Amino acid sequence: MMDRRVFIIVLDSMGIGQAPDAALFSDEGSDTLGAIRDHENFYCPVLKSMGLFNIEGVGGGTAAPTASFARLREKSMGKDTTIGHWEIAGLVSPEPLPTYPEGFPDEVIREFEEKTGRKVLCNKPYSGTDVIRDYGKQHVETGDLIVYTSADSVFQIAAHEDVVPVPELYRICETAREILKGKHGVGRVIARPFTGEWPYVRTANRHDFSLYPPANTMLDLLSASGFETLSVGKIYDIFAGKGVSEMNRIRNNHEGMLKTLEMADRDFCGLCFVNLVDFDMLYGHRNDVAGYAKAMTEFDRDLEMLLPKLRDDDLLIITADHGCDPGTPSTDHSRECVPMLLYGKHVKAGIDLGIRDTYADISASVLSYFGVSQGNTAGTEFLSDTLSLAGKLPENAPDDETLMRIAKEMRSRSYAPYSRFTVGAALLTAEGKVYTGCNIENATYTPTVCAERTAFFKAVSEGERHFAKIAIAGGREGEDGDFCAPCGVCRQVMAEFCDPDFILLLGKPGDVKEYRLSEVLPFMFTGESL
Predict the structure, then answer these.
(1) Cystine design at 32: which of 120, 323, 481, 522 (Cβ 3.0–4.6 Å)?
(2) Which domain, by its residues, includes 154?
């Protein structure tokens, strides 16, 4: 495996329009991007050039996008950060996490007060800035904890840093996390420290204590396969550290991008998973259209610095976890579709991947890129539609003449007692590994397998998914052989796993003809045809 790297940047809450089931969440008409794109503070030429506005339903796209793009629907029953990120990582949640529009039940508050030794103030849905304005003085006077929630599945605890030091607040949150399990298993317990004199201000010492993911995610599968999983921002918190090999905390979006730029300069093999929370926390929830638009402009500038740092085999995926439309009366998350931009030097520019049924297609694609089995995670990969790997091979990859010699040698292993027509194949993966095959016949003919399919099936069974070219040598037994084209079934198998630029080398050493898959199989029938 080459030192491949994938960067996923989550623009927390950057929805691109209501989801088909928005009415179930009372979010009809929500459109986070639509609320900010016409503001004078919004200027995102890099995102536009990549294809953000080419996504179906967005409008105003460029004629030549530099990335591939898609509109993603959420399959999980929720619209919060935890469920959204879990789905990006391949875990679909069919049941919503519990919410408390009337505040938390008495038995929860009673146990919390007993175990912390402090009384509770508020216990109702509230804005984070309003709650410290309205209850902050009482908290400072009494030491009672401000507990509040929102439309999301959260148990939030606000406390002044001079009254409840940050380490103690974190321990209190851990106590709450132990209490809030089972039917009261909220997605996150959040420490919300504040400081100063009234009117108080929240500090950067927020910390999320998330529910432990109930099953393996993309992070677990990559980590178990030996790949690094680097987190930037609150990714570590969202997954409760599960499957994360390195944590990097940040104080704001810009610091998150600076940390991502540092990661891009590092040598690592695996995933860098980034969350930029300011869009949601500072602007979406506060209905700050101007601030949200400005934050997107600042991200666009940082993104312009990141793109040149990407290496030949890097992939960059930009997406979101839900919406939070700052232009609606609501200050809560909104049930929206989210964008997906896929960028890289091997990524075909301007491919419209359409409307996808789940965020988990991102996880499936990342796992596919690293050759890791999906296990029980959800999603359908889209890389086979976007990557053009032919010709972009490691320096030590065998050349065409070598591949053809290997294919010729494989003819000697053919089992063809009925047709006496022997065929050998040498299949080259995108990473320079060769899988060989020969034709194997059977008296009933139906179980007969061609050399090309033997090579493909061997490779796929070993976890390979990305292929550059195949050499095919065949002819009558005992003869030198010549031009040997693959049968229709083999061409169809190639269409399943290869892009149209996949190369076929036909002939014999010293006399090789080269064709593209699109030439030998026009009007291909693929999974998108179903």
Answers:
(1) 323
(2) 106-209
